[in-house]
Amino acid sequence: MNPDATTGALTAPVGDIAATGLGGAAAPDMSIMGLFLQADWVVKLVVILLLLASFWSWAIIIDKLRRLRRVQVQADQFEEAFWSGNSIDDLYDRIQARPDHPMALVFVAAMREWRRATERLAAPGAALATGLQERISKVMRVALNRELDGLERYLGFLATVGSTAPFVGLFGTVWGIMNSFSSIAISKNTSLSVVAPGIAEALFATALGLVAAIPAVIAYNKLSSDVGRFQGRLEGFADEFSAILSRQVDERRS
């Protein structure tokens, strides 16, 4: 008998057994997509909800940052024109058709009320002057609040995502761990290869909840602070412009 043939006959089954024992059982896919595909339907639903919340949060964040930067630049340009010493009537005639930022809208609202009143009565009395100032203050306040509402829109969604996303992710984690324990009870196997995939799926939900929540919380705090500062700037301009119109009322009375 050929010794080589005998050796091959003995070693070949050993190689087959090793391949079956080590490589025959497919290792679980621990990639992000693999974890998602292997997860329970409840965990999948949690992951989808968190992904949607994260994408929508980032869309809001990018839009608000761009809009706040734009209105700040427009406010700088408007204040430069307003305090340049030129006539405010000329400024009004130039922008009243298309006021395209909050400060201009507040200015146009006040000037529109001012012109409406002064065109009707050439010489308003003291009582009328007081009423006119009150009406101007009110229309500026209404315009200011309307513009602030637009800037603050959807910030509440960021606050909601920041406060609830970790708990939604935690729910997915608890559900995934429950499934892992059920798998252990059914298979009666406590090896790491049985437990690890389920635990990884569960922890993935928690990680995704934090990924959605952390940027939302940071952006909400920053955007709220920026809107608050811009609100103070608008209110300061409204007070200054109200004082200017009040002086003009007094001049018309004298």
From TrEMBL:
Main localisation: membrane
Domain MotA/TolQ/ExbB proton channel: 130-234
GO terms under biological process: bacteriocin transport; cell division; protein import
Residues passing through the membrane, by range: 41-62, 154-178, 198-220
Pfam families, per database record: MotA_ExbB
InterPro entries documented for this protein: ExbB/TolQ_transport (IPR050790), MotA_ExbB_proton_chnl (IPR002898), Tol-Pal_TolQ (IPR014163)
GO cellular component, one term: plasma membrane
Its biological purpose: Part of the Tol-Pal system, which plays a role in outer membrane invagination during cell division and is important for maintaining outer membrane integrity.
PANTHER family assigned: PROTEIN TOLQ (PTHR30625), TOL-PAL SYSTEM PROTEIN TOLQ (PTHR30625:SF3)
Protein name: Tol-Pal system protein TolQ
Gene: tolQ
